[in-house]
């Protein structure tokens, strides 16, 4: 698939097969994530692989859609509020690169914001000075839904003089 096909085909997966995904493949896609733009090369992201005990403690309503792998992506705060904001944006770009690299090889993700709650942060052991960008289920899709309708970009463009 070319990049536009990957972008247009990618979905948030809500039902995974139980087939394992190798750690080597996941690390390969995470490495692709590191090519994300990040201001002043801060590389603010950190990745936590979540084991069964921690996953059970998080008690996500769908158990991360029964994905065989669950990981969290964190973003380190910067020296200023603005740098912290930039780091969060860079970490979201890291996640998107990871998601697209995995999708290009037939593996999907489910993005949950549960990690940002104080309870989840405590369970994950997130240190002060970090934000949780998301917790991700990773695996082979059992089901791929049709895309939801999107607003045309022409309705979102403003031309300034």
Walk me through what this model shows.
The chain has 161 residues and is of the alpha+beta class. It has a single domain, classed as NADH Oxidase (3-Layer(aba) Sandwich), CATH 3.40.109. Helices cover 35% and strands 17% of the residues. It has five helices and four strands. It has helices spanning 3-9, 23-33, 52-58, 81-104, 118-124, and strands at 45-49, 69-76, 108-112, 130-139. α2 crosses α4 (81-104). It is globular, with a radius of gyration of 17 Å. The chain starts with a helix and ends in a 22-residue tail after the last strand. The mean pLDDT is 97.
CATH first level: which class? Answer: Alpha Beta
Helix content: 25-40%
Low-confidence stretches: none
H and E string: HHEHEHEHE
Shape: globular
SS-based structural class?
A: alpha+beta
As for the CATH topology, it is NADH Oxidase
Q: What is the averaged pLDDT score?
A: 97
The assigned CATH architecture is 3-Layer(aba) Sandwich
Quaternary state, please?
single chain
GO molecular function, one term: oxidoreductase activity
Pfam families: Nitroreductase
Protein name: Nitroreductase
Topology:
Elements: H1 3-9, H2 23-33, E1 45-49, H3 52-58, E2 69-76, H4 81-104, E3 108-112, H5 118-124, E4 130-139
Antiparallel strand pairs: 1-2, 2-4, 3-4
Helix pairs in contact: 2-4
InterPro entries: NAD(P)H_nitroreductase (IPR052530), Nitroreductase (IPR029479), Nitroreductase-like (IPR000415)
Protein name: Nitroreductase
Organism: Salirhabdus euzebyi
